[in-house]
Amino acid sequence: MSKKTFFSVEYDFHASPQLLFQYLSTPSGLSEWFADNVNSRGEIFDFIWDDSEEQAKLIQKKTNERIRFQWVNGESDQTDYYFEFKIEVDEITKDVSLVISDYADDDDDTGADEDTSTPN
After folding, report:
1. What range does the domain containing 52 cover?
2. pTM over 0.70
């Protein structure tokens, strides 16, 4: 398996962190924007797009702040990578941002500028 590259993208939102978190952490919320359909059984989430289905395990959740998943794909290096949705609120302006972080194969074009900072 080829090494993957960490990247992140940031989007500004006019919504409260609480409302935004519902779209990131629940199957119905994720079905609204991330996948065609999402089902969950405990910590395992099934993401369905057209004719494909992928499973991910919820590995970290901090209410109204972040949610981190790890794809369950049977690959030996799967525990090295994750994807995360993180809500950031500017302390001064109270602007709300969503930072999406993931890993992509080196030959994938993510359409995002690579963030060279070290992931948390």
Report:
1. 4-100
2. yes
